[in-house]
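hey can u check if this looks right to u? its 520 residues, i copy pasted from the old doc so theres a chance i mangled smth
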Amino acid sequence: MFPKINPTTTQAWKKLTTHFSDIQDSKMQEMFVDDPKRSESMAIQWNDFYVDYSKNRVSHLTLSLLLELAEEVGLKDAMEAQFTQETINETEGRAVGHTALRNFDAMKPEVISALAQMKEFTEKVIEGDWKGYTGKPIETIVNIGIGGSDLGPDMVHEALKYYKNRLDVHFVSNVDGDHVMEVLKDLDRETTLFIIVSKTFTTQETLTNAQTIRTWFLNEASEQDIEKHFAAVSTNLEAVAQFGIASQNIFPMWDWVGGRFSLWSAVGLSIACAIGYDNFESLLKGAHDMDAHFRNEELDENIPVILALLSVWYNNFFEAESECIVPYSQYLSKLVPYLQQGIMESNGKSTDRNGDLIDYQTGTIIWGSTGTNAQHAFFQLIHQGTKFIPTDFIAFKASLYGNDDHQNKLLANCFAQTDALLHGTYGSEVENNFKLFEGNKPTNTILIEKLTPRSLGSLIAMYEHKLFVQGVIWNIFSYDQWGVELGKKLAKGTLEAIQNGNSSNLHNSSTKRLISSLSE
């Protein structure tokens, strides 16, 4: 059974509360002086990852108490429940099986079949054997989706551009008509293939964009040509067929895969088109590497567990409201928006697994940008502002194009920022308070050998497992998303009011006034 333990009732939580009173004003600068081996003992080397968490406001006692908390809330049992496909998403009656999408040692038959279909499809398109309605090979792929059906594929496509092939790939997500028209204006109907990603094939934004694109396509092509230029990832076979998409161009989705964890499935078809199936498979294998580490490693040497426990420590005891993530690679410019959905949609909950309202903090606000751009934007706030903001720094030892001068300067900035956030001007004389840096700001440094499909897979999976551990400790269901549904439901009635100019059925006077102002 999936554990349902209120963390604040545990002995470990009570010990942590007392311990926090003792340590909250401690200086990391002094911790490093008192423990010369701190940087060695608070680091994990795994595969091509080196995770340095020594620059955190924790002692060895803090870590032992946090690990005790993990044991007391049943983290190990919860981990096994997920990996063994128990129905841990209880409010939606679903198992959580995204890790099964990348386990090549024990892969479900339906996943094997889907991967084979993806391999055949992508190779045909990439090699130019897939022809459009005028006999020309496909040159452009457009992914039509939203949420996990867009953020994941778009992020990975951007991250792995170094590995891209001859195909151009675009993403349409927002229901904003200007967005879709900006994409369409430079496309050639004869050489473009559209992939519609929607589990139910009813998502308003995705279907609106898909119908607009279908109409645009049919301005010059015929209904019979749709099967040569449209594919779908969906479970609603009837609706897909009505759209005109051929059965052989339909890829499966499963209810045991949540949208924000679906890039590993056929939702990643646009990724496989962009970088080739073999690189897509390497992405999956990298994620599985992290799955195995997370499942099998002891908790005190477990990267996602340690990162999650540190987050809980700051969120629930230091009352930090946000966490910043700064990748020192421009390729990872879309990682933060992707993680915002994964983490904030998962752990933004105020009801626990027992159905009780929560009186402690759960999900954190995730934000950030790429270094060194971020240093010239919001780092001032982290260094000298009044907010307490733990920050993850992600960097790669080697660049992909081999420009050592640029890479050395990039890494120098990354390492120097964590050092400055740690030390500040502590122990030094400054001219005035304007130049005073308190330091003592917590950071993690995740240093990876090189950005490859495999290492990216491991990095994404690391954050997936981190948010899972957080959810277990906070006693919430991380895999449902009821908060997304209410807005969708209300939007239907609001749309009707906008379309017919009658807002009498709406309850809120502000919304009514906004709608009436549209015609003024």
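The CA atoms of residues 499 and 515 lie 10 Å apart.
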